[in-house]
Specification:
The structure is a homodimer of 168-residue chains. Chain A is mainly α and 168 residues long. Chain A has helices at 11-30, 37-48, 54-61, 65-77, 99-119, 125-140, and strands at 81-85, 93-97. Chain A binds a DNA duplex (23 and 23 nucleotides) through helix 4.
Chain lengths: 168, 168
DNA sequence: TATTGTTATACTCTATAACTATA
DNA sequence: TATAGTTATAGAGTATAACAATA
């Protein structure tokens, strides 16, 4: 007879459930800015170093180039991002933020910081630090690429058996 | 100037990311049984108390009745679940597990327990208990219905401002 | 008239692969 | 011949609402 724990006693279930809710909440909090989380990821990428190509962006966030097109299209139509021709390789588009794009990126980052406080509202500062460290440990123990959200790369490695912890 | 933390320093980002990966990993681990997580939820519900209707199931897991039909169809075709007519209300279907359905439910529960170990493999027993408690606290601080996964009820309350903690 | 279950429909999201223009 | 970007297409998953049988 297999033991049936209540679901709320399971780290895996809680991670999955809270992950969905956190993602949904973050989507909601960004809504007044007229962007969704993948747009935020794209803005962050461009803001981190302007002039890079869509290919590099696609590799960085782990989505197919065909999806990048739609994201950049939307941001360009809203005047947040510019595609400029790269003189040394005219196949590639160099990506830049507009002034408005920088403003929206900053606003989105402020909302993200605010949302982080809301998510952690039930915890003391010490508990919050402990939770952060434990979550980092869980992530690290499964050799997951940093700074990439699997919602942007569903083909990525799931949290699965066979994920050998990095040596050392 | 808004401060830009690395994403891995954010509880919200880590919850969202680990939640996606955990859900994907659990889907993968169930695959040999030929079921997906919502099927597991349905089997658990029926196994918990047989004879209840699809309506009650729909309310319990928080999905529209039209989706329940497809889930129960699939499980019935595989011979894991039976629909029986309820003599006292012939509109309703009373749901039962077959012997094979019970067997698959037990096997799935065993895999779920095993997966829980894998997710927590990088933690000591003490750390694991602390993580569980902190995740429960985060969930509780946002008055989230227990035992329901938002992946089954996307219309449900996201982790958002306005989610007043329960009084007391 | 209301409710259980079912079906039909329409919408969103996505990956794949074909295509173009440059290299 | 290969690569950056784009477009076309087809598939999966979903909610909504119309529907049939029963109450």
């Amino acid at each position: 007879m297999v033991q049936e724990e209540p679901l709320e006693q399971s780290v895996g279930f809680l991670l999955s459930k809270l992950g969905f809710q956190t993602a949904a909440g973050f989507t909601a909090i960004l809504e007044p800015l007229g962007i969704v989380p993948p747009h935020f990821a794209v803005l962050r990428f461009i803001g981190g170093a302007e002039g890079r190509s869509q290919q590099v962006l696609a590799d960085a966030v782990g989505v197919p180039p065909s999806r990048i097109v739609a994201f950049v299209d939307a941001l360009e139509e809203r005047g947040l991002v510019e595609r400029r021709r790269n003189p040394s390789d005219r196949r590639a588009h160099a990506l830049y933020l507009t002034t408005e794009g920088r403003r929206i990126l900053d606003a989105a980052q402020a909302l993200a910081n605010q949302y982080e406080e809301e998510v952690c509202a039930g915890l003391s500062d010490g508990e919050r630090a402990v939770l952060l460290e434990l979550l980092q440990r869980v992530a690290q123990s499964h050799e997951i690429p940093m700074n990439v959200h699997p919602g942007m790369r569903m083909e990525g490695p799931p949290l699965r058996p066979g994920a050998t912890p990095p040596p050392g």
